[in-house]
């Protein structure tokens, strides 16, 4: 089983956030503290070239001459997700530029998109990277993907040719086996999580500028599990035959051998949402570009540790980025 890299300290959860559930819930229970006002922001729009007329939105915090980190949120997340804001704050304080991206139909992009993102939306990430100003990426480009966004990042890195090649990337708590993640969300111990997530998925699907037929609205309202939602709405909306086909074709675990960009996968063995089996089965990844860091604790995109002022995974992100960028950003 891949282990935590020796150059990083082992994760130690801090009181009272013990166990995977409390690590996962901590930011929902203690919101606030992500002040990005010291770093001016501008809103960017990215045209998709699939004929839909959809435009993605993102927030850019530009620091002159700095490397830029593109942050990709998870399922029902957006540019304002707590984990995105905290990584943005941390990397900006370390001298990076940061782009907080919204996938198709997420956050403010819901008002400028008729369609919907999914775990296989690598084409949307590609479109954003293609349209980034050349001077913005001249000092280096890196990617961070959280949960479903991590799967999107990994899928993008496996595809050839890359529209834009980042120096490296990190995924955090990514569902690299989508079928296993779907099944895990539906186990009885996760019923509250499941109910909460399904409600958010349904609300996101029909809000703003979404173009949804009456039949689709009925389907969305009638879905009782995330599998049913994926099988009857997400999969057909994105060109798949059903949930099984969607999961099979978009799970990034099988795509890792095709990745030649340095990439680090971070995951907690006690993540209540994403089972660790797919990570443990990786053993020694067949691609020398892929590294895996597993922690006994940390929950789902949690990693709130003793003595840390930012989640533990952000220390991985920053150190990993510096290693693979030609020049360190200026703080």
3D architecture notes:
The protein has 331 residues and is α/β, with parallel strands linked by helices. The chain has a domain at 20-178 and 256-324: 3-Layer(aba) Sandwich (Rossmann fold), CATH 3.40.50.1820. Helices cover 36% and strands 14% of the residues. It is built from 12 helices and 8 strands. Strands 1-2-4-3-5-6-7-8 form an 8-stranded mixed beta sheet. Helix 5 (148-158) links the parallel strand 5 (141-146) and strand 6 (168-172). The mean pLDDT is 92.
Quick overview of this protein structure:
The chain is an alpha/beta fold and 331 residues long. It has helices at 20-29, 82-93, 122-131, 134-137, 148-158, 178-185, 191-206, 214-222, 226-237, 243-250, 277-281, 312-324; strands at residues 42-47, 55-61, 68-72, 97-101, 141-146, 168-172, 263-268, 290-295. Helices cover 36% and strands 14% of the residues.
CATH architecture of the domain at 20-178 and 256-324: 3-Layer(aba) Sandwich
What's the name of the CATH homologous superfamily of the domain at 20-178 and 256-324? Alpha/Beta hydrolase fold, catalytic domain
**What are the secondary-structure elements, in order, as H or E?**
HEEEHEHHEHEHHHHHEHEH
Q: How much beta, percentage-wise?
A: 5-15%
Globular, elongated, flat, extended or rod-shaped: what is the shape?
globular
Mean of residue pLDDT? 92
Note poorly predicted spans. Answer: none
Task: Return the structural class.
Answer: alpha/beta
Helix content: 25-40%
Major sheet characteristics: 8 strands, mixed
From the 3D structure, determine the CATH topology of the domain at 20-178 and 256-324.
Rossmann fold
The Rg value, from CA coordinates, equals: 19 Å
Number of beta-strand segments = 8
Going across the major beta sheet, what is the strand order? 1-2-4-3-5-6-7-8
Number of H/I helices? 12
Distance between the termini: 36 Å
